[in-house]
From TrEMBL:
InterPro entries: Glutamic_endopeptidase, Neprosin, Neprosin_propep. Transmembrane segments: none annotated. This is Neprosin PEP catalytic domain-containing protein. Coiled coil: none annotated. It holds the Pfam family Neprosin_AP. It comes from Daucus carota subsp. sativus. PANTHER family: OS06G0474500 PROTEIN, PROTEIN, PUTATIVE (DUF239)-RELATED-RELATED.
């Protein structure tokens, strides 16, 4: 998959443009002095100050720093200093021991090996630390505001005009987790403020202000990361994306227990059209003993957990599970060309369309079960669509995605 970089307007260039167009610049254009070089509009200066204050809070002291080949800086932060423990309900705590994994059925899992770019170095984070992708000043300043950095735009329901989905979902029962293998691609995202993701949702509450969600998968988000790489991510909210929760470790909440995987780091290798395909395994489930929601990546690699007391409805159980893709369409007058999945429609099948396979739910008895009441939803099927199936090797599966703007999706 060839992916194009979005046009990102650098902060410095923006300041220069504002300066050149300002009355002060007109008056002082003939003078070259230090005051000209440090001039900043008041609003931008305040945003910069807020960004730096946020960075001092979120970038924790590290015992080791690793430079990734893709440009990321990975900090090995002592586990007890991670952002989770800034939360008032978590202060002074230590990460919990691993829970009992859900009991498997007879499904076959054929996961291919997926690594992260930073792991291609000879460096690793020592025991007792967790790898955290360093958040930069540029990362924060790309956001519409410092307050909104690391947060999703509020999703009122599955048919909101700017967020578009192609998902398979199960509802109407009590769910205690979900599992799937997710095909990894690098879809083209054409606008800095759009994204394309493929994930598992664990949902409870209504789609009003009380929505609770736990989410994990991969995403391409130029605004959040400054590039078009697919990255492993997590998300949570307990109030419909209003004030609680965030991506990855960009606020307090999720407790990471693993020193091998960096949430927010790029995934490698990636699938390509009519060529070799790569998956990531994702499983989210509720620990029957303590009630916290745990996350597993790949084949048995525990990443950490969302403490149950972050939530209201999810303290008990989920009432909906979703699998599939989501994009943001910021175009007006015509549809975005941001791709979902591989950028190809479901009908093209294996090696061309993106898929989820081995889709299962976790029941009250901490057992993995196949989906029995799976339904499909495509908000704009001429732009992004979805098809489902089942066989003895993949269990429940879906193909989904599309190119966005095309002849049928103008």
């Amino acid at each position: 998959m060839i992916f194009s970089s979005p046009i990102i307007f650098p902060f410095v260039s923006f300041l220069l443009l504002v300066f050149l167009l300002s009355p002060v610049a007109a008056l002082e254009s003939g003078h070259h002095n230090a005051a000209n070089q440090t001039f900043r509009p008041r609003e931008e200066t305040r945003k910069l100050e807020r960004a730096r204050a946020y960075l001092r809070k979120i970038n924790k002291p590290a015992s080791k720093t690793i430079q990734s080949p893709d440009g990321d800086v990975i900090k090995c932060v002592p586990s007890h200093l991670q952002p989770a423990f800034d939360h008032p309900l978590l202060k002074g705590q230590k990460p919990l021991e691993p829970p009992e994994r859900p009991k498997h059925n007879d499904s076959i899992d054929l996961s291919t090996e997926i690594i992260q770019a930073w792991m291609n170095t000879s460096e690793s984070c020592p025991e007792g630390t967790i790898p955290i992708r360093e958040t930069t000043e540029q990362d924060v300043l790309r956001a519409s505001s410092v307050r909104r950095f690391g947060r999703k735009i509020r999703r009122r329901d599955t048919t909101s005009s700017d967020h578009e989905h192609a998902v398979a979902f199960a509802s109407g029962d009590q769910y205690y987790g979900a599992k799937a293998s997710i095909n990894v691609w690098a879809p083209r995202v054409i606008d800095q403020y759009e994204f394309s993701l493929s994930q598992v949702w664990v949902i409870s509450g209504s789609f009003g202000n009380d929505l609770n969600t736990i989410e994990a998968g991969w995403q391409v988000s130029p605004e959040l990361y400054g590039d078009n790489y697919p990255r492993f991510f997590t998300y949570w909210t307990s109030d419909a994306y209003q004030t609680t929760g965030c991506y990855n470790l960009l606020c307090s909440g999720f407790v990471q227990t693993n020193n091998k995987i960096a949430i927010g780091a790029a995934i490698s290798p990636r699938s390509s059209y009519n060529n070799k395909q790569f998956d990531i395994g994702i499983m989210i489930w509720k620990d029957p003993k303590h009630g916290h929601w745990w996350l597993e990546f790949g084949s048995g690699l525990l990443i950490g957990y969302w403490p149950s007391y972050l939530f209201s409805h999810l303290r008990d159980h989920a009432n909906m599970i979703q699998f599939g893709g989501e994009i943001v369409n910021s175009r007006s007058g015509f549809h975005t060309s941001t791709q979902m999945g591989s950028g190809h429609f479901a009908e093209e099948g294996f090696g061309k369309a993106s898929y989820f396979r081995n889709m299962q739910i976790v029941d009250w008895d901490n057992s993995l079960l196949p989906l029995s009441n799976l339904r499909l939803l495509a908000d704009h099927p001429n732009c992004y669509d979805i098809r489902a199936g089942r066989n003895n090797v993949w269990g429940n599966y879906i193909y989904y995605g599309g190119p966005g703007r095309n002849q049928r999706c103008p």
